[in-house]
Specification:
heterodimer; A: 462 residues; alpha+beta; 3 domains; 5-stranded antiparallel β-sheet; 12 strands; elongated; B: 361 residues; alpha/beta; GMP Synthetase, Chain A, domain 3; 2 domains; 8-stranded mixed β-sheet; 4-stranded mixed β-sheet; 35% helix; Spore_GerAC_C_sf (chain B); membrane (chain B); lipoprotein (chain B); Spore_GerAC-like (chain B)
Chain lengths: 462, 361
C-alpha cells in the first residue's frame, strides 16, 4: 500500500483503501479530486452482482476493464482519473472509468458569433466535442485518430471524414504529429507550431475555431480537424487564404446576400492592408491624383501638422492597437467605455490638438473597421500587423514602394502551403469551378457545384 | 539562397532611381494659370487658395521670365510654399500669345510627368489680370478657377463652344488634318466677370484671330458631329402666314460627305425635337413637312456661312482632313492641307426631321 502511495509522492488527495469485493480483498486507489465517488460505488455494487451471478467476463463493461497488474499502466490510469481496484492475490487490476467532469455548457463562443444558425460552441472536453460533431454528421466515415504523446497525458486527436479527406494529406499530418517530441501542451497554439508548414510566415496555416458547425462544413469539404484534450479550440487544415473569409453566416443567409458580404469581406482584406499606406503615398508623393475639389479641405487640415504623414499614421494606429488591446483585457462593461472614450474622445481631441489630420482619423478608423471584418481572429491580427511594413514602404517610396510590398506579399502567399496544399488555391493554381466559390456563395442545392477541397489539390499531390 | 532573395528584394526599391518626397503639406496648389506676353517676355499669373483660420482666400501672384518655365520658377521667389501646377484646372492664354506659336507656352506642361493633362484650356480677350482677380465677389464668389472650370464645362455641355483638355490640344496642334478651336473668354460688360465670347479658330499652331460666335459654334458642333449634351437653337418659321420663333433641340444626326476631286458635298440628316413653338399643335403631316423644309433652309444657310468663314481663315476645324487623308490621297498630297482646304468647293446641305414634339403635339 505504501509503495503505491510513494509512487504518487504521498499526495494528500491520493487515496488507497482496502476493500472487499465479493469476498476478495483488494486495494482501491484513486485521486479523490478527480473521480465521481458515487459512480465508483455504483460500479462496485454492479461488479459484486455480476461476480455473484457468475457472469463470464465479470470485469468488462462499458466503464470497467480488467487486466494484469502493471505499474505504469496503473499510474497512467489513475492520472487519467480512473479508480483502480488491485487484486493483489490474483495479480489483476480493475480499472473503473469514473472521471468527474467539470464542464460548462456548450455556449456560443464569444469571438465567433453568427446572426443565424446554430449557437453551439465546443467545450474543454474532447468527448463532448466529438459528441457535438457526431450529432451533426451521423455517418460512419467520421474517423477519430488519437495520438498519445509519449510519457505525457496530453492527447491529440484528429478527426476527419474518411471518404472526403485526401489520404496523402491525412498521412502528412499523421507524420508531423508523430514527430512531436515529449512536451506538455497548454494551447493549440503550441501544437500549431509543430504542424505548420512555415512557422515564420505571418499567415496562419490552420483555421482555428470553436464552432461545431464551422468544423462540420469544413470536414465535409475534406479538411482535417485537430483537437487537443483540454481546449475548445480546434485546428482545421489544410486551408487556403479564402477559407478565412468564409463565415458560417454565408450559408445561413440567402444566396445574393451571402455573395455580397463575401465580396465585401475580400475587399476589406485589401482595404485593411493598403488604405493607410495609400493615404501616406498620396500625401507624401502623389498629391496630383487628389481631385481638385478635395484639395482645399485636405490642405486646410494637413497644413498645421508638425510631422510627416507616416508618423501621423503610426501614432493613430498605435492608439487603435492600444484601445483594442485594452478593451479585450478589461471586463465587458468597462471595455466598451474604453472603446468609446478612445474612439470618439481621443479621435476628436487629437484633431483639435493638431496632432493628426481629420483625413488620417478617417483613414485609420476605416482601416481598423475593415480589419475587423475578417471572420477569423488570427488572420485579423496578421492583417493589422502587415499594415506597418506597408506604411514604411509607402513613406519611403510612395506607390512604387507599395507595389514592391504587394509583390513581396504575393510571392510569399504563392510560396506558402498548408499541409503541402497551395495557399492561394483555387485562384492559383486556378480551378474555375471552385474559383466562383471564392467570390460568390453558390446556391447549395446544386451538388455539382459543391466542390470538395481536394478536387485539384489531391491530383496535384500525386 | 534565402539571404540572397532578401537582399535582392531590398535592393529593388533602390533601382527605381530618384524618388523625392514631395509632401502635400509643403505644396501650394495652383488651379488657374494665365499666360500672356510673347516669346522672350512671358508673364504668368497664378491663382491659388490660401488658408487662414478655416477661411479660403484666393490669392494671385505673377512672374515674368523668358519663357513659361522660367517665369514659373521665378514665382517661387514670392510665394511661401512651392508652387505646384499638377492640380491645374484651367489654363488661360491671352489671344495675342496664342497668335504666336501656342506650343511654345505649353511645352513645359507636357514635359513634366506630374502634370494634369485634363485641365481645360481657353483663350482670353483683354487684360489677363482682370480674369485672375475678381473684385465682383458677389457675382461669382472668390473661387475664380472653379467658376471658369464650370463655365467651360457648361458651355461644352450646351455646345456653345468646343472644349478641349490639355492633352487634346497637343494632339490637334500637331495634327495636319484637323485644326484646333478653343473657347474664348471675355470680361462681360454688364456682369463684370468672365463670360464666354466665342470660339477661336487656329491654323497650324497659332490662333488666326477669327472668332466664331456661339451660334456659329453650334453649327460647327453639328458639322463636326461632336455635340455636347444639349444643342439648342432658335429659328424663325412661317406657319399659315404668321411668323413664329421656334426653338429646336438637336437629337441625332448623320453626316454624309461626298468628295469628288475638289468638290465636296456635305449632307447632314438631322433629327430634332421641338422645344418651343408658341403656335401650338404641329401634328398635321403637311405642316410638319413645311416646318422641316424651312428649318432645313435656315440651317443649310448657317452651314454655308460657317464654311465660308472656315475657308477664309484656312482652318479646318470640322475635320474634313481626316476623311481626305484616309480616302483621297490625291487631294491630300496636293500640298499644305490648310491651303487646299481654303480652295475646295464645299457645299453643305442639311435635312431636318422633327422626331419629337415634346409632350404637346
Amino acid at each position: 500500500m505504501q509503495i503505491i502511495k510513494n509512487e504518487f509522492k504521498n499526495s494528500a488527495d491520493f487515496i488507497v483503501k482496502e476493500v472487499e469485493v465479493a469476498g476478495v480483498k483488494a486495494f482501491l486507489c484513486f485521486y479523490s479530486t478527480m473521480i465521481d465517488a458515487e459512480m465508483v460505488g455504483r460500479q462496485l455494487r454492479l461488479l459484486e452482482e455480476r461476480v455473484e451471478q457468475g457472469t463470464n467476463g465479470w470485469g468488462s463493461s462499458a466503464s470497467t476493464s480488467v487486466e494484469a497488474f502493471h505499474k505504469e499502466r496503473l499510474v497512467a490510469a489513475i492520472c487519467e482519473g480512473s479508480a483502480v481496484l488491485i487484486f493483489s492475490e490474483s495479480n489483476l487490476m480493475l480499472e473503473i472509468k469514473a472521471v468527474k467532469v467539470t464542464e460548462r455548457s456548450p455556449d456560443e463562443p464569444v469571438n465567433e458569433q453568427v446572426v443565424r444558425g446554430a449557437h453551439l460552441g465546443f467545450v474543454e472536453n474532447f468527448n463532448t466535442n466529438v459528441g457535438l460533431l457526431r450529432n451533426k454528421l451521423k455517418r460512419p466515415d467520421l474517423v477519430v485518430e488519437s495520438f498519445q504523446m509519449e510519457k505525457t497525458v496530453s492527447k491529440i486527436n484528429i478527426v476527419y471524414l474518411a471518404d472526403q479527406a485526401a489520404p496523402e494529406v491525412v498521412q502528412e499530418l499523421r507524420g508531423r504529429l508523430e514527430k512531436i517530441p515529449y512536451k506538455e501542451f497548454y494551447s493549440t497554439g503550441q501544437l500549431e507550431d509543430y504542424i505548420e508548414d512555415r512557422i515564420l510566415s505571418p499567415f496562419p496555416q490552420f483555421l482555428t475555431t470553436e464552432r461545431p458547425d464551422r468544423v462540420t462544413y469544413n470536414l465535409l469539404e475534406g479538411k482535417i480537424a485537430v483537437f487537443t484534450d483540454s481546449s475548445p479550440t480546434v485546428l482545421l487544415g489544410p486551408v487556403n487564404l479564402f477559407t478565412f473569409y468564409e463565415s458560417p453566416d454565408d450559408y445561413t443567409s440567402r444566396v445574393l446576400v451571402g455573395s455580397f458580404y463575401r465580396m465585401v469581406r475580400l475587399l476589406a482584406f485589401f482595404l485593411a492592408i493598403l488604405l493607410p499606406s495609400f493615404y501616406i503615398s498620396v500625401m507624401s508623393f502623389h498629391s496630383e491624383i487628389l481631385p481638385v475639389e478635395l484639395t482645399n479641405q485636405v490642405k486646410a487640415s494637413v497644413k498645421d501638422i508638425p510631422y510627416p504623414p507616416v508618423f501621423e499614421a503610426l501614432l493613430l494606429e498605435l492608439f487603435i492597437e492600444l484601445i483594442r488591446e485594452a478593451s479585450i483585457r478589461l471586463p465587458q462593461p468597462i471595455g466598451q467605455t474604453v472603446a468609446i472614450v478612445g474612439g470618439i474622445v481621443i479621435g476628436d481631441a487629437i484633431v483639435s490638438a493638431g496632432l493628426a489630420s481629420n483625413q488620417m482619423v478617417i483613414v485609420v478608423a476605416m482601416t481598423a473597421i475593415a480589419g475587423f471584418v475578417v471572420p477569423s481572429p488570427e488572420l485579423n491580427m496578421v492583417i493589422r500587423m502587415l499594415r506597418f511594413p506597408f506604411m514604411v514602404l509607402a513613406a519611403t517610396f510612395g506607390f512604387f514602394g507599395m507595389l514592391i510590398g504587394t509583390l513581396i506579399l504575393f510571392v510569399h502567399l504563392l510560396n506558402l502551403s498548408s499541409l503541402k496544399q497551395p495557399y492561394l488555391t483555387p485562384v492559383i493554381p486556378f480551378d474555375p469551378t471552385r474559383f466562383r466559390d471564392v467570390f460568390f456563395r453558390i446556391p447549395y442545392y446544386r451538388p455539382d457545384r459543391q466542390q470538395p477541397f481536394f478536387r485539384l489539390g489531391g491530383k496535384k499531390a500525386k | 539562397m534565402n539571404k540572397l532573395t532578401i537582399c535582392l528584394m531590398l535592393c529593388i526599391p533602390l533601382l527605381a532611381g530618384c524618388w523625392d518626397q514631395l509632401s502635400f503639406r509643403d505644396l501650394q496648389v495652383v488651379t488657374l494659370i494665365g499666360i500672356e506676353g510673347e516669346k522672350g517676355d512671358v508673364t504668368i499669373h497664378f491663382s491659388f487658395p490660401s488658408h487662414t483660420d478655416d477661411q479660403v482666400e484666393y490669392l494671385t501672384a505673377k512672374a515674368k521670365g523668358y519663357s513659361f518655365a522660367d517665369a514659373k520658377n521665378e514665382i517661387n521667389v514670392r510665394t511661401s510654399e512651392v508652387i505646384d501646377i499638377s492640380q491645374l484646372e484651367v489654363l488661360l492664354i491671352s489671344e495675342e500669345t496664342a497668335g504666336d506659336n501656342l506650343y511654345d507656352s505649353l511645352d513645359n506642361l507636357y514635359r513634366t510627368p506630374r502634370n494634369r493633362l485634363t485641365s481645360n484650356v481657353a483663350l482670353v480677350q483683354g487684360d489677363m489680370e482682370a480674369f485672375m482677380t475678381q473684385n465682383n465677389t458677389k457675382g461669382i464668389g472668390s473661387n475664380v478657377p472653379d467658376f471658369i472650370t464650370h463655365l467651360l464645362k457648361t458651355s461644352d455641355e450646351y455646345s456653345l463652344s468646343v472644349n478641349h483638355d490639355l492633352q487634346e490640344v497637343c494632339t490637334l496642334l500637331f495634327a495636319e488634318d484637323k485644326d484646333l478651336a478653343l473657347p474664348v473668354l471675355k470680361i462681360g460688360e454688364e456682369s463684370g466677370h468672365p463670360e464666354l465670347a466665342g470660339t477661336a479658330l487656329f491654323k497650324g499652331k497659332s490662333a488666326t484671330g477669327t472668332m466664331l460666335t456661339t451660334s456659329e459654334s453650334k453649327i460647327l458642333a453639328i458639322m463636326e458631329q461632336n455635340t455636347g449634351k444639349f444643342l439648342r437653337g432658335t429659328y424663325e418659321v412661317e406657319v399659315e402666314g404668321e411668323e413664329f420663333f421656334m426653338t429646336i433641340e438637336y437629337v441625332n444626326g448623320n453626316k454624309n460627305w461626298d468628295i469628288k476631286g475638289d468638290q465636296v458635298n456635305m449632307s447632314y440628316d438631322i433629327e430634332v425635337e421641338i422645344e418651343e413653338f408658341p403656335h401650338g399643335a404641329v401634328l398635321e403631316k403637311d405642316r410638319i413637312q413645311e416646318i422641316e423644309k424651312q428649318l432645313s433652309e435656315h440651317i443649310t444657310a448657317d452651314m454655308e456661312n460657317l464654311l465660308e468663314i472656315l475657308q477664309e481663315t484656312g482652318s479646318d476645324a470640322i475635320g474634313l482632313g481626316y476623311e481626305v487623308r484616309a480616302f483621297h490621297q490625291d487631294l491630300w498630297k496636293k500640298g499644305d492641307w490648310n491651303e487646299t482646304f481654303s480652295e475646295l468647293d464645299i457645299k453643305a446641305d442639311a435635312n431636318i426631321t422633327i422626331k419629337r414634339t415634346g409632350i404637346m403635339n
